[in-house]
Amino acid sequence: MRVGDIIALILLIIGVVAIIGGPMYYKSQAKEENVIEIRAKQWMFVPNKIVVKKGEKVTLRFTSDDVAHGLYIAAFGINEIVEPGKWKEVTFVPNKTGTFEIRCNIYCGEPYPNSGLGHWIMRAVLVVTD
């Protein structure tokens, strides 16, 4: 696969995510109960950016639309696996501010063999503010 083909494929994936990905951003509003639903599908999380406040309890409800996916946030010790159509919940209180990577830590495939795409680019961010 040529470099130009890889770049075109990446741009196509970004365009598809932007068009059909649904809400791509979540910002915490509620103070009492903060439940955030995250959908995983090859090769994205929706939303792909979550903003919460330090010290406020957060529950992440996580599901998969297609294959088994992982929800891994190393900074907060979160490491969950969910099968397609099932839901998992994890509740935690963010104790530090910053931008933290969310990634799938269960191999979920690639659109083209040995392309370095797909699972390897499946990322989102958790932003914790004061």
Can you put this structure into words, describing what you see?
The chain is mainly beta and 130 residues long. Helices cover 14% and strands 42% of the residues. It has 1 helix and 10 strands. It has one helix at residues 3-20; strands at 25-27, 35-41, 44-46, 49-53, 58-64, 69-73, 78-82, 87-92, 98-103, 123-129. The strands form 3 sheets. It has a 4-stranded mixed sheet, with no helix packed on it. Strands 3-2-5-8 form a 4-stranded mixed sheet, with no helix packed on it. A two-stranded antiparallel sheet has the order 6-7. A hairpin with a 2-residue loop joins strand 2 and strand 3 (44-46). It is globular. Residues 18-23 have low confidence and may be disordered.
Characteristics of this structure?
130 residues, mainly beta, 1 helix
Quick gist of this model?
The chain is mainly beta. It is built from one helix and ten strands.
Say what oligomer this is. single chain
Share in helix: 10-25%
Major sheet attributes: 4 strands, mixed
User: Could you list the spans in which at least 5 consecutive residues all have pLDDT below 50?
Assistant: 18-23
What coarse outline follows from CA principal-axis ratios? globular
Query: Which percent band covers the strand fraction?
Result: 35-45%
Strand tally is: 10
- Strand line-up across the major sheet: 1-4-10-9
Radius of gyration: 15 Å
The secondary structure category is: mainly beta
- How would you spell out the order of helices and strands? HEEEEEEEEEE
Q: What's the pLDDT, averaged over the residues?
A: 83
Number of helices: 1
The N- to C-terminal Cα distance equals 45 Å
